[in-house]
Amino acid sequence: MNRILAIREGGAVQRFHASPHLCHYDVAQHSWGMAAMLFVLNPDASRELIYACLFHDVAERWVGDMPAPMKWSNKIVQEEMHRTEERIERQLGINIQLTEIEQKWLKALDLLDLYIFCMHERAMGNTLLNKTEELCLKMLTEEPWIPSAVTEWVQNTLDFRRTTDWLTKDI
After folding, report:
1. Is residue 171 part of a domain?
2. Within a domain: 36
3. Helices 148-163 and 27-41, packing angle to 10 deg
4. Contact, 57 vs 26, CB < 8 A?
């Protein structure tokens, strides 16, 4: 297997395919979005965490993007999927070891990127993702493991959205 091509192909996997949405959303967009948010919210992040943001879903090229409700409702499927993804990541040389804090950052950014995707979908009229957006918001603002910089950004964004047309506002 050509490692460069295999890693690159991982970015083409369609995300969130089990829910109807208006915009294209693939692993490459998601991973880049996470790395960009990390740059702003945690500018001193380790190289490993940056790489993890970029490569954490590459294995989906072979296993797909399993819908979260399936993973949550079946621990056996979730564990087998995790083992398979780890094996693929090892084969590709992208099995990145993170500290516990870095793992929390990775999970929080993963959730934050989905939240922002849902916000944009709703702004364009797609109400089918409202429950997903609400769940993301609840987790991002109430879970104690979410890094404070992420929670603060979400709260500031909520305040901003209440007072302006946030989608068309200039930087």
Report:
1. no
2. yes
3. 100
4. no
Q: What is the mean pLDDT of residues 76-104?
A: 94
Domain enclosing residue 146, as ranges: 3-163
- pTM of this structure: 0.89
Q: What is the CATH number of the domain that holds 141?
A: 1.10.3210.10
| Residue 31, pLDDT score | 97
Query: Using CA atoms, how far apart are residues 95 and 137, in angstroms rounded to an integer?
Result: 29
26 within some domain? yes
For residue 4, give Cα distances in angstroms to 58, 94, 111, 132: 11, 11, 27, 34
| Tens of pLDDT, residues 131-141 | 999 999 999 99
Q: Is residue 169 part of a domain?
A: no
Six token digits for residue 31 = 């991973």
- Please give the C-alpha separations between residue 144 and each of 52, 138, 147, 162, in angstroms, as whole numbers: 22, 11, 8, 25
Rounded to 10°, the helix 100-123/47-55 angle is: 40
